[in-house]
Every structure is written in C-alpha cells, then in structure tokens.
Amino acid sequence: MVSTFKRHRLNTALRSAVVLGASLAVLAGAPAQADGLFGFGRAKSAAAEQQIEPVLDAVNQALAEGRLVDAGRILDSAYAAGAVDPRLLLCSGELQLARERYDEAIVTFSQAEASAPLKARAMQGRGLALSKRGRPADAVPVLEEAVRLDPSLWRAWNSLGVERDRRHDWAGAADAYEHALKAPDASAIVLNNRGYSLLLQEKYREASNDFVLALQKDPGLSGARTNLRLSLALQGDYQRATSVSGTEDRASVLNNAGFAAVLRGDLNAAEGLFKQAIDVRGSSYGRAIENLQMVKALQASNAQLAARAP
Description:
Largest sheet: none
Order of helices and strands: HHHHHHHHHHHHHHHH
CATH topology of the domain at 1-20 and 187-310: Serine Threonine Protein Phosphatase 5, Tetratricopeptide repeat
Number of helices: 16
CATH superfamily of the domain at 1-20 and 187-310: Tetratricopeptide repeat domain
Oligomer: single chain
Helix content: 55-70%
Radius of gyration: 24 Å
CATH class of the domain at 1-20 and 187-310: Mainly Alpha
Low-confidence stretches: 1-7, 15-44
Structural class: mainly alpha
CATH architecture of the domain at 1-20 and 187-310: Alpha Horseshoe
Strand content: under 5%
Shape: elongated
C-alpha cells in the first residue's frame, strides 16, 4: 500500500514542488535590418540607430532586473515618440511574457519573427509563451525550430527539457538540458530543472548534486534549496534536510521532510517530523495536522494487514 502511494505521489504531487520554467534573459541588440525598419520616423539613419540603442539597453536592463513597470514606461515612451524597430517588438514580447500575458506575447513574438535576424529569438519567446499557456503540442515544434536556427538559445532548450519531462521522455529532457548548459549565460534554473528531472526518476543522489550546483551558481534560487532538501529527505537524510537558517520557515521545512518520508514509506519518521512541525507552528498548522492524520491512517492500515498475515 505504501509503495503504491509512493508511486502515485511521485508522479503527481512532486511536480508542484519545483520552480519550472525559463528565466528571463537579457536581450542583445540585433544586427541592422533592411531600410525603413529601424529608428524614429519612417526611414533608417545612423542618428536614428544611435537613438534607439539606449532605449533597447534601458528596456533590457529593466527586464533583467525585474523592473517591469519601468520597462513598460520606457517602451511606451519610445512608441509614443514614433520609434519603429522590430527589436522593440521583441522587448515588448519579453515584457508580456514576464507579466504572464501569454496570449499577447504570442502575437507580439509572431510579429517579431518577420525580422530574419530576430526570428530565432522571437520563436523562442513564442514557444515559451505557448508552453506557459499550456499548449505543449504547439510549443514544442516552435521551440525546436528556434534551437535549430540558433543552438545557443538556452531558454528554448530549457523549456524543451521541461516539456519532455512532462512526457517522461527522460533521455530527451537530459539532452535538452545538456544543450542549455553549453550556453555561457545559462541560468541556474537549468541545473535546478535537470535535478528535478532526476528527482522524478527517483535518482535522488544525482538530483542532489544538480541542486547543489544550482545553488553554487545562484545562492538566492529558493526553489533549488527546497528541492535539495526534498532530495535529501527522500534519501533518508532528515537531519540535513531539516537544517535551516534563522530566517527560514522551520515548520514548513519539517512538514516537507515528513512528506518525503511518507514517499519513502518511512512512516515512523514521517510521524515524528509532522509532530515537530506542529510543535513549531502550533495547532493552526492545518496542513501538517492533515498529514499526520494521513500517516496514522496508513500505520493503522499496515497494522491490520500485518495482523491478517499468516
């Protein structure tokens, strides 16, 4: 019974415990296009090109720092001044993507694809938006075409890895993450997602290694820290899994470790961890109380089965 429960939870509930998805990347300026596409007004000029570059730099910097309001204001001002540049479309698509306005992003990136030098990155953005929109059948071929055009697009590779994980295409996911990690600017989220892929395959030690690498690259990646604790607890290393700093929520950490113990079939350890979580937060911690009740029900069921055994 515990084994069946474990398999079910590993294939469902574990998926909600991780940060999946692609990190927002800084856009680089694209090469010059055909006359009439760039600058302020109707025609391209060297002066107009110089005018648009600081705008693009400012938008990209704001996007990279998560200052979405600032990015929006800069873009609005540029458009109001008559700026005409497909790179602004690419920035607009990235802003819509960051704001989770996926349908708008899909349209904007599609428009940006008309500019040949921007096509790969625009397809990457459209593929990411389609994936976030829950349209994997549409997202995957777009992402695959993006990386065919430009194999250095780590965000597209990362998203392909996530989509392949969802289909349990473990080899395909591993290949996608490997390609993503070849990019020098690849985010720590790729290591986190590869680790989570290994976690889903119950390769807990290898998963832990990737989570550690992710945290070394980005110590502030909280999802990787949560996943590292989960992978440690799934190996039975509850002490390390529940080690927290003064600013962390110890009750939640204990509850998560208890959940991992249930997945391992280690009900006695799970009971102790849930009780500790309740002691830390008090009787208002409904989730831990429910988990403790579940453990007691499983223990009672196991006891009944043992009593009936010859």
